[in-house]
Amino acid sequence: MRFRAEIRNIHTFTKFTSSLATLGHIAWLRLDSTDCRFTVIPERGTQVWSVLTPDTIFDSYTIQSAAPNNAINLEVPLQPLQRALRSAGGGVGASLRLTKKDGVPLLSLTITTTTIAASSSNPTNITEGSRDDFANGQGSAPATSSLREGSTDAGFFGGSRERETLVTQDIPIRVLAPASVEDLHEPRCREPDVHIVLPNLLQLKSISDRFTKLALTSGNRNTSGGGVGGRFGFQGGSSTAGPKLELSANMHGCLRLALETESMKISSLWTGLENPELDPEQVPEGEEGLANHPSTRMKALGDSTGQGEEGWATVRVEGRDWGRVLSVGRLGGRVIACFCQGHAVILYVFLSGEEGGGGESVLTYYISSYSA
Amino acid sequence: MSDATSLALKFSLSPEATGRLYDALLTITALNLSRTAYASFALDAKSFFLDYNLNASSTAKGGDRFTCQILNKALQSVFKGRTNDGRGREPAIERCDVIIQEQPDMTECRLIVKMICKHGMTKTYRLTYESVEVMHALFDHTSAPQGWRISSRVLREYIEFFGPKTEQLDLVAEDGKVIFTSFTEEMKNGKEVLKQPLETVITLHTEDFEDFHMQDQTHIVISVKDFRAIVTHAYTLGGLLTASFSRSSRPLQFSYQNYGIHCEFTLMTTGDLRGALSSQAPKFISTRGSSRQPSTLSQPPSRPSASEMPPPPPARMNFNKPLSSQSQRPSLRAQVHQPSFENSDPDPHSLFVPERNPWDPPNFDGNDEDEEMLGWDAANERANDFQPTFRDSGPTAPPSQQRQQEMQSSQASGLEPSQWLSQQRPLFD
Q1: At what angle do helices B15-30 and B72-79 cross, to 10 degrees?
Q2: B204 and B270 within one domain
Q3: Disordered: where is this region (chain B) (predicted)?
């Protein structure tokens, strides 16, 4: 079992890992000849299944395994991976490989950095005088200042060379047997009612977070004089207990984010968004299937002003979990949301162009809807 | 003593020095979670202070020094936010005056800090202190011939790589490089293994060091937190950081100085002795010229091979007088190691120092684990010395063991190597 690759775009990889790390501590990483799949399945909250083509983040991608299609399945802790990648940001190069140390499997990230040797590397120039002089910063006695000049000259001519320093960050991992991941399948979902390109995620996130915060504070006020149960509900931090945001979209380019509590009802509306055309080849039963597709029927309802109550597909998401999902916005990809009325919303985040390294890489978020 | 109180000590600080004093206090806090570290910040009377006056005649015990113990937290809160960078909410200070009033008969022993601020405001803090004899850790430089010196800026860059949760730092020299590894000892099983912190390995070229001399494959292990705190503080002062050590289970010292602050940290090390115990001749990775080689190279029980002529000791070690100081302290533990594998008889006509003398007294303690205790110096006899707290701490031994002592624990003495044999002859001929 071998895996080794140069990291092509450390910043993309770091941002990608950071996004995953908001949802869970551990990722299932499946590497094979054609794909790098990162999957996070937290106990509750949103799942993310992502497929990256190796050249999105890697160069000189080498993989060898006894399993079919050279597959290697690993369990990777995301925080150490993220930390390791972040520390590689200042380096001139980095590579990742699967290795073992004292019987413990590791992903070893080797970072090449440069040290600029500011002073002389010639040991004969290091004298007691220059030692004190370095330490004092400013030599005052004439004797030491002449020594200092000597060593500065040496540094100018002989030093100031860049040298490569290797830093290795070892990330503990677990190697998974193919049998143990056999039963893991991507969630299946019926054909969506509405699909829409989301607006700028940074903007969507800041508004969503503000709504969540409002719900939390108004919730606390409500429960401050009330029962213990309510208070536990909000402070427990579990994703089922937090405030729910109502997210709706129609097939006329409208997206609505709403919050309703006992004391208030607020909503934000985006219009003029894109509803991408479905590719008949991707729809079951082709053209006929497209004609009967739920989204085709939804097109007949509602309008582009988003003022009516018709034609909306609505889901209820947990505010904090939704905020964590939206942190994927840092990757800057195009995001399509597929709404299944009252059931789930699926986010497809496409990494392409410069950030994606040319390949088709996609992160898929499965966000369940809560009942009202 | 005309006044009711006597001024034992009075000094004034510039705003910059006040900030640096605070940095030092903070560093003390960050250190020593494992309680195996000793830190000392010596402030130079001439260059650190605007004004410094120790009133020797009025100190309670007479004598030319004043020692006390004071809560670090209390001092920190006084000096907090006193840096003149304008960011703090506290008004910028112009000067800081500190007075120590000592009166043995009264409870009014006080350390008074006056912060003279801008706009004519003065803040006065009165702290109580405890008058105690301060214990100082002993670190014997002559028994720590290995070491390195590097720009604190370079190290500062690399400590960033160490994970926040790792506990230990292993230091080993290998193949022209020095390898710093941060790790956590506890090995977890199963799923828990994923909670193991990152292990970071940093490989630096010895050329990045101003000076480097370390035995090949010797592991020295200290606490990552201590190392990080020390490097961070060294960086605030700029300049070079020096490490001196011999091998694992013996103290290591970091030192650096600038702006009239002399900082010394003595840390106890752990680590495995695999490298040091190898029966081969120890190999050194060194940027030092041959003239800088210390006279004794390695630690027991491995010795330099007989064919290796020990070079003369470095000149800077000559001020030490291990022979005289060794007899000053009673032996804490006989540091005698009985070799089990060394059988060859040294050539009596050889000019070289023999590897191991078979007539050495046996180690009746039966304690092969040569872990050494850190010594303490309560007397602090050289109080007027530039660096008053450290004295030669050569492990003591009965006179008959002295020569062997020197060989075994790398007591790089001020003696020329030729004297070693002459010293040996009368003892064993």
Answers
A1: 140
A2: yes
A3: 284-429
**A332 found inside a domain:** yes
Whether residues B157 and B105 fall in one domain: no
User: Does residue B274 sit in the same domain as residue B170?
Assistant: yes
* Cross-chain Cβ contact B200/A168 below 8 Å: yes
pLDDT of A284 = 76
| Total domains, chain B | 2
| Domain around B168 | 137-428
- Round to whole Å and give the CA distance between B121 and B114: 10
Residues A224 and A103 in one domain: no
Alpha helices by DSSP H, B315-411 = 322-326, 402-408
Min Cα–Cα distance to chain A from B177, Å: 10
CA distance B162 to chain A (A): 9
Q: Which of B99, B134, B169 is the last residue of a domain?
A: B134
Q: CB-based contact (8 Å) between A26 and chain B? A: yes
Distance from CA of B331 to the nearest CA of A (A): 34
Range of the domain at A130: 118-160
Yes or no, beta carbons of A169 and B199 under 8 Å apart? yes
Identify whether residues B168 and B119 lie together within a single domain.
no
Q: Could you tell me if residue B261 is inside a domain?
A: yes
- Same domain for B106 and B201, yes or no, is no
Q: In angstroms, what separates the C-alpha of B105 from chain A's closest C-alpha? A: 42
**How many independent structural domains does chain A possess?**
3
In a domain, residue B1? The reply is: no
Which site among A126, A127, A130, A171 would you substitute to test the B interface, given the most B Cβ atoms closer than 10 Å to its Cβ?
A126
Who among B197, B203, B292 is closest to A165 (CB)?
B203
- The overall average pLDDT reported for chain B is 67
Q: Does B165 touch chain A (CB under 8 A)?
A: no
3-state secondary structure of A111: strand
Q: CA B196 to CA B188: how far, in whole Å?
A: 7
Asked if A333 and A234 sit in the same domain, the reply is yes
Domain match, A327 and A210 both: yes
Does A97 contact B at CB distance below 8 Å? no
Residue B400 one-letter amino acid:
S
Pair B412, B351 in one domain: yes
Using 50, 70 and 90 to split pLDDT, how confident is the model at A175? very high
Neighbour count for residue B60 (Cβ, 10 Å): 14
CA angle B69, B72, B77 (to 5 degrees): 130
Question: A165 CB near a chain B CB, below 8 Å?
Answer: yes
**Beta partners for B218?**
none
Q: Which of A235, A183, A220 is nearest to A28 (CA)?
A: A183
* CB neighbours of residue A147 within 10 Å: 20
Please determine, for the modelled complex, whether the ipTM score is greater than 0.90.
no
With beta carbons under 8 A apart, name residues in chain B contacting A169.
161, 198-201
Helices (H), B314-362: 322-326
What are the pLDDT digits (tens) for A184-221? 888 888 889 999 999 999 999 999 999 999 988 876 54
pLDDT in tens, B129-176: 887 777 777 788 888 888 899 999 888 888 888 887 788 889 888 888
Q: Is B158 in CB contact (< 8 Å) with chain A?
A: yes
Question: The tokens of A317 are what?
Answer: 């998401």
CATH code for the domain of B156: 3.10.150.10
Min mean pLDDT across A186-200, A230-244, B303-317 is at: B303-317
Q: Measured between CB atoms, does B202 come within 8 Å of chain A? A: yes
B-chain CB neighbours of A135 within 8 Å are 239-240, 256-258
- Span A133-152, pLDDT tens digits: 333 333 333 333 333 333 33
Among the listed residues A335, A256, A343, A259, the one whose alpha carbon sits nearest the alpha carbon of residue A294: A343
Least confident of A33-42, A278-287, A353-362, B111-120: A353-362
